[in-house]
Inverse folding.
């Protein structure tokens, strides 16, 4: 597939935004559970607003993918069948909840609304946080299922696509939370950093499993099934257009195998070991800047990862577009 | 339910591209038009076509077959491109099974093209909406056209009549008979998309000649059974 | 979006439907042009048309893009004073100025020496008018493109069976059981052949294709027999050998309808050696085969007049006539000739296993013999024998340029004609069938002028610019036996060059050999690009000057619809119209669109007004003819005779009162006559009302065996199609060729060739078919250049001017050199690499593509896709210029100097057919440091005045709104 930058930024920015938001809610939950010191409401508010900005940036990126963005509102219509439609519905809900969460913190609407059990005072921030978490997880699933749901793209058509999106998005968000904490000199760096490392490791496991699966993938379609001629030696000579077509532009990355390999190694390094090393180093040195570096390294790595995600997917339609003559 | 479709006879397709340009010509000024061209007079000219003819080579020299392979939307009975469309712009008509795109609803997300294993959809790069074969629905349903002309442009154009058009759900239709009798098949059956369009395979005609057939009693050589005596020695000269 | 079911196209805009005839290629199908608000909305096939029966090809449907192409020229242009040729620096002039210039110049030439004016046209099918114009002007220097197209096919078969493929005849696939196609992938008769082949296959016929490359029609053949280029003759002769030795020939057919049983003088010492023994009897003089020949009768064991009732002639043996003349039936000579051509002999030459050759022969012979067709049609032959039925042997052939475009093509095609004849398949059901006006006498009656005296100032040419020589006296040579025409046609160099040698005109004119000319008028001929051999050098010749600064070819006029590469070299450019903007007549006098069942001709009637100042070339000729006061174009008082071309078409008669004109249909005052009749003032209307064609279906008993069908021949004579209702006996043995050979041997009492050409004429004018290596192969180091290089045109562009077409060029915007993977491996390059392809005459850099569908000793590419930068309205960076290429750069227009001459054309020594496919090449990888563009490249041609401005990035064609944007 052709890696479209709009979609690369859409999925990575949404992932980081959702991750950051999840980190904020997680931080609050830990604080409620007294495992962490309670933070100022502003901390959660600003964190969530940053998450919102990332979500908005992702949304803006998505518009570049649409031929007719002015009609984007129509995309909510087919939620019964289309994961894309579901994403289009869930994304504004997530954004609204993130915004509400931020506003609730900002406005310090922390008067308990009711009490659960002996000690859990449920206020609007907690309620919104929990709702937002559910919505965010749903958004992860919707986004990932847009890709995992296309059965023709066998490289994508696996639950690993969903787990990758969740773990890698969450990892980058927690990494950003660590960076945010480090930036404002907040003690939660270690907490977020640890979670970020855990999520990165989960992401690594998931992504390696995905790579391994794809390396052994047997494609269902062959040029033989594509044109229905049973012969071992069967090659396309002409595709009926020498100047290219939508089919050659949308479904091919147009790069050499060397480039694809390089990008893979690049993201395997940038997404996984480097941020973990940087966070580890930050533990030791208590550096304020290393977590920030860790986030940026991972995010850049994720852009490469997403590029690779597209590039490695071989669409069966490509069997019809092998040769120009 | 009616399911209109094309049945393409690879046994007679000579790869002339008549279907390609007649389609372009009809549809660019028709209901589904325009079909935009990019760089029409410059480098890498490209444009929207609903139908392309490709060429494949089968086997190795000298046992090579050249297969010309026309490909357009197959109007699947289970069209994977339709449910993924977020806006409902892609739809399958209940009355005749044709898969269409409503350009007014299309947001140009291209997701349907990802969900088509056949590469049958092409985005209009200027108008930014998805376009595809309509089976010339604006011809085949136009009561103002004569019965003969109420067929897709590609079918009417095809000089070898390699393109049959009809209802594959009607067991007695020309297309159903051809599929049945000629071993019509679907592309990429592994996906369960149930393409309505079918392809008819190559068939070889061979002649077997028995040695006995080479010489017959009326062989004309027998009428030229001449030898000339030029004075050479024969048994007449030596035996008695 | 509106529900498509409620949409009707007929309600959008103002709709008109007009019928005319397509000319996107030379096939000429009937079309319906649908207009919306005056713009072309849709072009489809006319369902009632006999040729295409409603279908249309890729080119036909793309006619819209021709009409609205930015490559069109729209104004008469004159090269700017001071500008050099080839720079495309033009200024717009009026038609009046253009006609003024031309009239003044041509009138002067006509008064001084008419042959200083040469008119060559890329397209035929307009020759009735262009040829007549040349004759009226008085110049012999006229031809169409047949010489570099397929004249070998026309001549080879017409000199053998009195008809040929394409317009003149074709395979009867409706009744054939076996169809053998040789050297054809796509053809002139494009849609009809596609229709016929597909129906043939559906009926279960077996289709064999013999071709070095498997493309086009060959793709759907039941069997592909790959053959080395230029060796088809060897294959055909080996098949003939097998058929003769197994007795699989149609003896009865050979006896009755061919010269197989006729006795040939067989005594090398005699001056009439190799001629038919002519009995002493009164014969009428005429251009037909007099029947004063003899058979050797089996029963009386002696000579007898041919076709004596009850006679049973021998086909084999050698005999001595009572007067002592040793004779042999010509079939015996053929048998002796093909004895050496065994399948084992042909196998290494052709690359086809001997077993396969034998099997092909058996399939042909047994199918012809055992699947005989008998139709209950009574007919009468020329000898008054009544036949209860028409019979046929269902083996059909088709062949075209693969055989024709070699310098051994004439003999190869004669071999094919002979094979078709021994199988008994000529004008019979299931075999080859003629199309009116064929069959014609062997050879047809028209003759070229006989000497320089035929060209006189201010006088029409004495003779026809093109004709059919039957003997040395028919050649167009001077007292020294040297050429009179600029292209040296009908000289001893190429005696039977019945379509001329357009491919040598520029070189000869540049060299002044045989003489310099003044004005060259080219119509629709891209002689500075893909229509010429040796393109790079020819482009230099066009701009070459004498030391005094004058161009060697002083005045070049180009009439074209598009800004082609050749236009850049013009001194005067005349903008032609498209086929949708003009009247045309596809005339019985030229190359009509007849069917097997009878004559068909067709017209074009304008659908749209001409763009800008475009003017149909025919109107240009009528205007010029009138201004020059050429006799046919003016009345006795010198005043203009014809208002315009449509007026000319209706009222012109070949001679006053002849009743024969350009159109055969609806003649006579009231339109009730066929082929012959008084001019009908309403003829155009009648064509318009009838789909723009006229189809005269012959009675069934005139549809077959026409060479010998008394009824048909008399009908044809009565309708002016033929001069004599005499049988047209098939020339298994060619006495015509023998006459030229005797002249070369010094045995002919009349004209003889110059000494340097004696051996050449003696060798190649063999009355019996033979195979020889193409001339270029004979003169090339084939170890250094081991590969044959071929070109063909893709179906979507076959025979068309529309490789610039916005839609068609998306299918093929550039080309590759296709070759066997083994060639790539042997030369160290891979699929898709940039390579050099080099012949002894030049080299070209291009991209290659591996293919298993090509004979490994052959490389090939699609022709006429490569363009010079900026030509044809395309951008300078168009794929056609950057990635496309021509093979023409590698093909010389002349052979290397050798015994027969220093400047002989690279052509068939009999017909002058351009030997495009003889070129030998080698291939090697381009250096990685070289630019990834094809070589050679040319300075981009600028946009011409009057040409549409450069189109933008987008084109969204929608009829009715396109032109208004």
């Amino acid at each position: 597939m052709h890696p479209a930058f709009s979609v690369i930024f859409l999925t990575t920015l949404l992932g980081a935004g959702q991750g950051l938001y999840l980190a904020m809610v997680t931080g609050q939950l830990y604080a409620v559970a007294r495992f962490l010191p309670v933070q100022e409401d502003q901390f959660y508010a600003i964190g969530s607003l940053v998450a919102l900005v990332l979500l908005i940036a992702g949304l803006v990126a998505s518009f570049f993918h649409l031929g007719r963005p002015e009609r984007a509102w129509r995309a909510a219509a087919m939620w019964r069948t289309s994961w894309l439609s579901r994403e289009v519905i869930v994304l504004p809900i997530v954004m609204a909840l993130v915004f509400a969460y931020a506003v609730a913190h900002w406005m310090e609407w922390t008067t308990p609304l009711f009490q659960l059990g002996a000690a859990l005072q449920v206020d609007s921030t907690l309620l919104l946080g929990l709702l937002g978490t559910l919505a965010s997880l749903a958004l992860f699933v919707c986004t990932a299922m847009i890709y995992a749901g296309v059965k023709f793209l066998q490289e994508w058509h696996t639950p690993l696509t969903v787990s990758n999106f969740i773990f890698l998005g969450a990892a980058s968000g927690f990494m950003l939370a660590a960076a945010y904490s480090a930036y404002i000199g907040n003690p939660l760096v270690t907490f977020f950093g640890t979670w970020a490392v855990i999520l990165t490791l989960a992401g690594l496991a998931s992504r390696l499993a995905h790579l391994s699966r794809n390396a052994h993938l047997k494609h269902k379609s062959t040029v033989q099934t594509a044109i229905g001629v049973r012969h071992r030696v069967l090659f396309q000579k002409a595709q009926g257009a020498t100047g290219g077509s939508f089919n050659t532009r949308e479904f091919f990355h147009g790069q050499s195998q060397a480039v694809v390999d390089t990008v893979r190694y690049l993201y395997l390094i940038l997404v996984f070991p480097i941020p973990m090393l940087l966070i580890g180093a930050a533990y030791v040195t208590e550096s304020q800047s290393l977590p920030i570096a860790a986030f940026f390294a991972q995010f850049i790595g994720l852009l490469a990862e997403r590029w690779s995600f597209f590039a490695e997917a071989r669409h069966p339609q490509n069997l019809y577009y092998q040769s120009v003559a | 339910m009616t399911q209109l479709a094309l049945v393409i006879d690879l046994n007679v397709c000579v790869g002339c591209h008549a279907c390609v340009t007649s389609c372009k010509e009809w549809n660019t000024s028709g209901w589904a038009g325009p079909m935009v061209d990019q760089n029409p007079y410059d480098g890498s000219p490209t444009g929207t076509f609903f139908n392309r003819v490709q060429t494949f080579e089968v086997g190795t020299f000298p046992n090579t077959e050249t297969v010309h392979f026309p490909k357009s939307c197959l109007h699947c009975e289970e069209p994977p491109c339709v449910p993924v469309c977020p806006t409902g712009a892609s739809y399958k008509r209940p009355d005749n099974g044709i898969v269409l795109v409503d350009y007014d609803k299309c947001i140009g997300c291209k997701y349907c093209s990802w969900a088509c294993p056949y590469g049958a959809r092409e985005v209009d790069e200027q108008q930014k909406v998805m376009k595809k074969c309509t089976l010339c629905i604006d011809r085949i349903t136009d009561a103002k056209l004569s019965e003969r002309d109420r067929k897709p442009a590609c079918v009417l154009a095809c000089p070898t009549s390699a393109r049959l058009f009809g209802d594959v759900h009607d067991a007695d239709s020309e297309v159903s008979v051809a599929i049945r009798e000629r071993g019509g098949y679907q592309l990429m059956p592994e996906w369960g998309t149930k393409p309505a369009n079918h392809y008819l395979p190559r068939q070889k005609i061979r002649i077997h000649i028995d040695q006995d057939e080479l010489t017959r009693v009326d062989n004309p050589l027998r009428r030229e059974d001449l030898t000339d005596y030029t004075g050479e020695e024969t048994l007449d000269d030596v035996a008695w | 979006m509106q529900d498509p079911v409620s949409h009707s196209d007929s309600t959008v805009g103002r709709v008109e439907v007009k019928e005319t005839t397509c000319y996107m290629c030379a096939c000429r199908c009937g079309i319906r042009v649908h207009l919306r608000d005056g713009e072309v909305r849709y072009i489809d096939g006319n369902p009632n048309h006999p040729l295409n029966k409603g279908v249309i090809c890729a080119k036909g449907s793309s006619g819209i893009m021709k009409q609205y192409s930015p490559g069109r020229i729209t104004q008469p242009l004159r090269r700017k004073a001071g500008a050099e040729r080839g720079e495309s620096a033009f200024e717009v002039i009026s038609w009046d100025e253009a006609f003024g210039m031309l009239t003044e110049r041509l009138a002067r030439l006509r008064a001084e020496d008419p042959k200083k004016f040469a008119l060559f046209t890329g397209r035929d099918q307009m020759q009735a008018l262009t040829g007549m114009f040349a004759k009226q002007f008085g110049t012999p220097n006229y031809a169409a493109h047949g010489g570099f197209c397929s004249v070998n096919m026309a001549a080879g078969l017409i000199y053998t069976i009195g008809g040929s493929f394409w317009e003149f005849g074709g395979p009867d696939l409706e009744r054939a059981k076996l169809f053998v196609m040789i050297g054809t992938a796509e053809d002139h008769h494009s849609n009809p052949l596609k229709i016929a082949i597909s129906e043939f296959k559906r009926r279960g016929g077996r289709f064999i294709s013999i071709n070095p490359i498997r493309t086009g029609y060959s793709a759907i053949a039941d069997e592909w027999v790959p053959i080395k280029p230029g060796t088809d003759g060897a294959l055909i002769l080996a098949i003939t050998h097998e058929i003769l030795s197994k007795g699989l020939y149609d003896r009865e057919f050979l006896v009755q309808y061919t010269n197989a049983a006729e006795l040939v003088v067989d005594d090398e010492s005699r001056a009439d050696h190799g001629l038919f023994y002519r009995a002493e009897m009164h014969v009428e003089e005429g251009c037909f085969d007099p029947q004063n020949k003899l058979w050797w009768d089996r029963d009386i064991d002696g000579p007898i007049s041919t076709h004596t009732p009850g006679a049973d002639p021998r086909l084999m043996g050698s005999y001595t006539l009572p007067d002592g003349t040793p004779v042999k039936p010509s079939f015996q000579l053929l048998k002796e000739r093909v004895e050496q051509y065994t399948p084992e002999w042909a196998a290494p030459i052709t690359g086809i296993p001997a077993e396969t050759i034998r099997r092909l022969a058996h399939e042909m012979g047994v199918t012809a013999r055992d699947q005989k067709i008998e139709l209950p049609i009574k007919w009468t032959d020329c000898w008054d024998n009544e036949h209860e039925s028409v019979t046929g042997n269902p083996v059909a052939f088709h062949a075209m340029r693969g055989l024709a475009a070699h310098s051994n093509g004439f003999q190869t095609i004669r071999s094919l004609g002979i094979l078709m004849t021994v199988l008994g398949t000529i004008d019979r059901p299931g075999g080859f069938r003629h199309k009116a006006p064929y069959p014609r006498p062997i050879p047809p009656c028209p003759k070229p002028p006989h000497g320089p005296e035929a060209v006189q100032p201010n006088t029409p040419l004495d003779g026809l610019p093109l004709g059919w020589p039957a003997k040395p006296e028919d050649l167009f040579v001077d007292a020294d036996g040297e050429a009179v025409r600029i292209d040296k046609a009908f000289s001893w160099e190429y005696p039977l060059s019945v379509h001329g040698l357009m491919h040598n005109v520029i070189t000869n004119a540049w060299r002044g050999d045989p003489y310099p000319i003044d004005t060259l008028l080219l119509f629709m001929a891209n002689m500075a690009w893909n229509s010429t051999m040796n393109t790079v050098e020819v482009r230099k010749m066009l701009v070459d000057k004498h030391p005094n600064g004058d161009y060697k070819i002083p005045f070049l006029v180009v009439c074209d619809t598009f800004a082609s590469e050749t236009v850049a070299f013009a001194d005067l450019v005349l903008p032609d119209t498209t086929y949708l903007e003009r009247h045309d007549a596809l005339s019985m006098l030229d190359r009509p669109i007849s069917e097997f069942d009878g004559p068909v001709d067709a017209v074009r009637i304008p659908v749209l007004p001409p763009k800008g100042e475009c003017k149909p070339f025919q109107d240009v000729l009528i205007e010029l003819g009138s201004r020059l006061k050429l006799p046919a174009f003016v009345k006795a008082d010198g005043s203009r005779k014809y208002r315009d071309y449509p007026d000319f078409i209706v009222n012109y008669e070949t001679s006053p009162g002849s009743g024969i004109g350009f159109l055969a249909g609806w003649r006579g005052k009231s339109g009730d006559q066929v082929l012959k009749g008084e001019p009908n003032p309403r003829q155009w209307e009648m064509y318009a009302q009838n789909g723009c064609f006229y189809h005269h279906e012959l009675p069934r008993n005139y549809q077959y065996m026409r060479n010998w069908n008394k009824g048909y021949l008399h009908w044809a004579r009565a309708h002016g199609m033929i001069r004599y209702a005499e049988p047209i006996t098939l020339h298994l043995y060619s006495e015509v060729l023998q006459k030229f050979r005797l002249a070369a041997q010094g045995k002919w009492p009349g004209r003889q060739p110059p000494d340097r050409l004696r051996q050449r004429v003696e060798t190649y004018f063999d009355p019996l078919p033979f195979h020889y290596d193409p001339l270029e192969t004979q003169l090339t180091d084939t170890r250094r250049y081991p590969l044959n290089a071929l070109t063909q045109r893709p179906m979507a562009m076959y025979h068309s001017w529309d490789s610039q077409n916005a839609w068609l060029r998306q299918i093929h915007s550039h080309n590759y050199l296709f070759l066997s993977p083994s060639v790539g491996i042997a030369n160290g390059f891979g699929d898709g690499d940039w390579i050099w392809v080099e012949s002894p005459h030049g080299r070209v850099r291009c991209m290659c593509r591996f293919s298993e569908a090509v004979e490994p000793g052959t490389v090939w590419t699609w022709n006429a896709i490569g363009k010079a930068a900026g030509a044809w309205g395309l951008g300078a960076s168009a794929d056609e210029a950057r990635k496309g290429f021509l093979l023409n750069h590698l093909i010389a227009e002349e052979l290397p100097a050798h015994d027969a001459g220093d400047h002989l054309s690279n052509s068939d020594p009999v017909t002058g057919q351009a030997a495009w496919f003889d070129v030998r090449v080698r291939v090697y990888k381009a250096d990685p440091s070289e630019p990834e563009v094809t070589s050679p490249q040319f300075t981009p041609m600028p946009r011409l005045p009057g040409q549409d401005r450069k189109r933008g990035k987008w084109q969204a064609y929608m009829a009715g709104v396109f032109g208004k944007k």
Summary: The helical segments of chain B are 18-28, 111-114, 137-140, 153-157, 174-182, 211-214, 235-238.
